[in-house]
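All the exercises in this workshop are built on plain-text protein records. A learned vocabulary of local backbone shapes supplies the integers on the structure line. Once this layout is familiar, the rest of the handout is easier to follow. An example says more than a description, so a record of this kind follows:
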Amino acid sequence: ITSLTATDKQLIINETTSLAQTKAATIKGLDIIDALTALKLASSNSEARRLIAGNAVKVNGKVVPIDFIITEKHYKDGLVLIKKGKSIGALYIK
């Protein structure tokens, strides 16, 4: 993710389910369960919990625990990739 060009990042944002975050929101943090449901990678909080418990969710390529909070430090060049199986979602700073 750190070697992406501006064009690559824009393509990811346009071609995946993506969600804009403000700088203030990135500092506050976003619960992984809320991120999964907001990106429509999970249809409910309970489905999101099952996916995480089954190690089916990765943030920037790493499996995450159920209490994972996406914060400013997880954004690489303004982008966070969340993967559920083969589906990909992206959070980005607007």
